[in-house]
Amino acid sequence: MHALFNYEQSHTFGLRVLSVMCSCLDTFLLLETQYKVQESLLGCQAENVKEESNELIIDALSVERNHVLVRTYLIGGPSERKLPPRVLLEDGRDPYPFPLFSSFPIPKSYPTTMAGRSAMKQDSELSRYLSQTKTAEKNQAWLDGCRKAFCKVLTSKPDLAKANVLVDMLEKVVQGQIKVQEETIFPKVDYKGSDKGLKSQSLSAVQQLGVQLTIRYGTHLNLVKNSKDTKEQLSHLLKQVRFFLRQQQRNIDCQLRLLQGEYVGHDWFTSTLFLMMMGKSERCWNFLLKFSTLLSSGYLWMPRLHASAHLPVPLTVSGIHPVYYCSAHYVELILQAEVPAVASAFRMSGYTPSQICQHWLRQCFWNYLDWLEICHYLCTCIVLGVDYQVYTCVAILRHLTHDILQHTQNQDLQVFLKEQPIPGFRVGEHLEFMQQLEERYRQTVQPDMRNLAKP
C-alpha cells in the first residue's frame, strides 16, 4: 500500500487496472465515450519526449501506456494482433524493440498480416450438401444431415468452413429450424419501423464507437471496406435491430437503471453477423428476423432479451440474463464433474467460472478467439443446439487447465483470464469432447434452457 504513494508505481497500478477493465469491450466503449481515455494516454505519451531529439522516452509508464493503447485500438484474437510487452527486454542494446507512438493510427507492426479472400471456390462435403438442397427439403431429416456434414468438415478440414459457406449454411438451417416447434419458442413479430423514421434517429455514443471498432476489425480481416457506406450500412442495421427489439420490451417499474431504456452495451452478435456476411446489411437483417424466433437467439444475441416481454416478469425485473443464470450455471456444474481440478482452482481463487464465461459470451469471444473460431462457435451453437454454448465454455476451460492452475498459484487468475486471449483453441479439435458432453448432459441442460420463457 505504501508503494502507491510513489508517482510511478501508483500510475502503473492505475494503468494495470484500466487494462483489465478495458478487456470488457462494453466497459472500454463507456470509458472512452465518457472520459476520452485514449486521447488522455496519447497526450501523456506526447509529453514524455526527449528535449534534444523529440523522441518518446522509454520508461515503465510509457511502456504500460503503449500496451493499453494497442490493446484498446486493435481488435483481434491470439494470431490477429501483436500486443507489446509490459516490461523491458533483457537485451541491453534494444530493450524495447516496439515502436511508441503519440497519435493514431498505430504503427503497422502491431496488426498481423491477414490473408486476402481467396477467389478460388473450395469444395467440401458441407458445401456440396448445401448446394444440393431444395427449399422444400429443409425438414428434420435435412437438418440432421446438415449437422453431420458440418461436424465432418469441422473436424477434418476446418479451414474450408469459412464465412461464405457458414453463412449459407446458417440461413438454410434457420429456415429449417423455424418449422420445428421445439426450436421456435418466441413468437414471430412483424417489424413496424420505416427507413424514413430510422434516419431521424441516432445511435448512442457507445454504439457509434462500437461501429468504428467493428469496421476496423472487419477491414483488418479483409471482410469489409473502411468506407462511409459500410459505416452507414452497419449503423442502419443497428437502428433496425434496436427498433425491432424495442417492440418486444416491456416497461418496467424498478430501480435498476440497467433496465430503464435501451440495452447499454454494443450489439456484438449483430456486428459479428455483419462481418460474416461481408457488410451485406439487408441479408443480415433478413436473417435476424427469422433467427429471433429461435431458442438460440435468447442465448447468443445478448440484447435479444433485454427487458423482454417474452420473459416472466420476476426474471425481467431481476436484470439477470439467461446466459448467467442458465448457461454459466451449467458450465460450473459440468466443470465440477468433468474437470474437477479446474473447478477447485476457481474455488480457491475466489473467482467463478460463471463470471469469466459471461464475460466471454457477452462479446462473442472478440479479442479471445481468432475470427474463424468465433464463426465456428456461433455455427456450432445454432446448428448443433444452443446447449453447445455450455459445452464450448467447458472445453475452453479444460483447454486452459495448465494456465488456470498456474495462475491460481500466482494469485492472478482473474487478471489472466480477462486480459489474455485463448491461444491454440480450435472448435473442431474439441468437438469430440463436446459431443461426449452432449450425450451425458443434453437431457438435463437443454430442457432447462428451453424453459426460459416459462413462468
Task: Spell out the blueprint of helices and strands.
Elements lengths: L6 H15 L3 H11 L1 H11 L12 H14 L51 H7 L8 H17 L6 H15 L17 H5 L5 H16 L7 H19 L21 H9 L4 H11 L5 H4 L12 H6 L3 H17 L1 H10 L3 H10 L8 H13 L4 H12 L1 H9 L3 H7 L11 H20 L5
Helix pairs in contact: 1-4, 2-9, 3-4, 5-6, 6-7, 7-18, 9-10, 9-11, 10-12, 15-16, 15-17, 15-19, 15-22, 16-20, 19-22
Task: Describe this structure as you would to a colleague.
This protein has 455 residues and is mostly helical. The chain is 57% helix and 0% strand. It contains 22 helices and no strands. The chain is globular, with a radius of gyration of 23 Å. The mean pLDDT is 92.
Helicity, in percent? 55-70%
* Order of helical and strand elements: HHHHHHHHHHHHHHHHHHHHHH
Number of strands: 0
Shape: globular
Work out the helix count: 22
Task: Let me know the largest β-sheet.
Answer: none
Weakly predicted, low-confidence segments: none
Which structural category do the helix and sheet elements fall into? Answer: mainly alpha
Mean pLDDT: 92
β-sheet strand percentage? under 5%
Rounded Rg = 23 Å
Distance between the termini: 49 Å
In short:
This protein has 455 residues and is mainly alpha-helical.
What are the salient characteristics of this protein?
single chain, mainly alpha
